[in-house]
Design a protein that fits this description.
Helix content: 40-55%
Radius of gyration: 19 Å
Structural class: alpha/beta
Distance between the termini: 34 Å
Oligomer: single chain
Amino acid sequence: MAKEKQPKETDEIKQRLESYAALQRKIDNQIERLENLIATMGSPSTPNLTGLPSGGGDGTSKIERQVARKDELEEKIRSGKNREEILKNAINYARSGNYIDFGALNHVDKNELMGLLEKAGEEDVDGHTFAMLSEDLDKAEELVYLLDNCGEIVADKLLVKVLKEQYPNMNITVMVRGMEVLNDAVMEDAEEVGLTKLVKVIGNGNGVAGTQADLLSQEAREAIEKADIIISKGQGNFETIYGGGWNIYYLFLCKCAWFSERFGMERLKGVFINEKDVRV
């Protein structure tokens, strides 16, 4: 009997070790994010989508400075020759905007940021993933868009705007953090940029730097459960919601060593992938 049980016991131990290792990687990554955030807090030279310093003492908010670049970004997005190209451009700019993460980078370089935004329209969107998304969008009734950092919210709004225009019969719900945490987007940011006038925006009910399913408010959980499509921005959302069994399209840049290693990509390379295609 002992010999028969041994393989099962060995498998259980192996599974536990793998779970512990995965948890340790997540903890290490969060520690890295927090250390980098502490290193950048109070820095007057950290840019946002305007390319201008945050906290520069000019009396304008971080969102107001972003709006200054909105028209320029939207013009580049709409330079696409057809609706497919326009949507791809919007995806690329939203993904490049994910560079603005004070919790993952100890230095947000203005020139590097602007270079990423300039190249965004030239980047390729993964054809396989885009085809999957297009097929899902054609039949979707409910889409939930999970915001990440407040510094990229203008680019997110432009992607949401394009989605709403191209799929007018689809209900779009944008989800922000329920309370302030790190540099993540909250309801105040969504209101200031005018996102609340465009689509329904809800808080997730907590202050975790991500979308932790078991901590969501009832409203947020119901929105996730009934969504035909979820677009998840940023590394923090991926870390917390991956593996939940939903139809999620992840959109972010690899900014931490753990993510670069996991996805086999260089630093600041873009990820656009469906939950089904992620290989842990």
